[in-house]
Amino acid sequence: MFAAYAARFDRDQPLNALELGERPEPLAPPNWAVVHVKAASLNHHDIWSLRGVGLAEEQLPMILGCDAAGTDADGNEVVVYPVVGASGHGVGPRERPTILTEKYQGSFAEQLSVPQWNIVPKPKELSFEEAACLPTAWLTAYRMLFTNAGVRPGDSVLVQGAGGGVATAAIVLGAAAGLRMFATSRDETKRRRAVDLGAEAAFETGARLPHRVDAVLETVGAATWSHSVKALRPGGVLVISGATSGPNPAAAELNRIFFLELKVVGSTMGSKEELAGLLNFCAARNVRPVIDTVLPLTRAREGFARMAGGDLFGKIVFTV
């Protein structure tokens, strides 16, 4: 079957490690199932895999891709929950949970094998391309907002770094849920897009906000950390799920955190139940993922190059 996979590692030029070509069709051990992939979306995780982060040489070649939507053996339209081992279903009882491509072959292929437990029905309202955007970036944003930030309709939320997959998802989901969403970006075009997607306002990175917010969603890390802490009202919540600009800010702002009784909450991915909730929310509220580019899997290298260049707004989707 045709697939896009990591054949080697290249820390400095990750696209040099990407290969497109034939790979063996997957097997389905007991309690596993084969999904015929219709669409799969790209994440920064895939770029890091090509650099060798989270993988060992003996695991190569590794088919990339964490997110997928397709059909099962009975023709049902499904979405794949990408964390294998989260419940123990289909794996050893002591196996730690891993996201697809960390141990098991990923979704950038014609077929994908996962535990039966990892398969979730796809709402008919969502296309395969739309559904394939949800299991990683959008699920991360959903958990950050509705589980870890603890915000309610009418509360205000700042999203750092508009344009990234998680940040874009958070703006759309928050606006649909009745939250007052604010965003930052260094790029004027991305600020305008954030407002078009439902943000009440968008500002230059580091700019003073009209008022302090109830929660900040942080994926940028070192470059925006100090601003995130200073943007919170007393008792506010900072939820962090990434650090694309680095993990070590110049100032940790510890005095401000304890004096204002701020909460700092780490957030990673989401549960299968939260994915089901996200799918239903999108279907019921007519929320659709923001898609930057759709390409056939045969042109996956173009999608990887676009993500590596950073000039995108929304998700890159490969169709099979």
Q: TL;DR of this structure?
A:
By secondary structure, the protein is an alpha/beta fold. The chain is built from nine helices and 18 strands.
Structure characterization notes:
- The structure is a single chain.
- The chain is of the alpha/beta class and 320 residues long.
- It has 9 helices and 18 strands.
- The strands form 4 sheets. Strands 3, 5, 6, 9, 10, 17 and 18 form a 7-stranded mixed beta sheet that branches. It has a 6-stranded parallel beta sheet with strand order 13-12-11-14-15-16.
- Strand 11, helix 4 and strand 12 form a beta-alpha-beta unit.
- Helix 3 crosses helix 4 and helix 3 packs across helix 8.
- The chain is globular and about 55 Å long.
- The protein starts with a strand and ends with a strand.
- The model has no long low-confidence stretch (mean pLDDT 95).
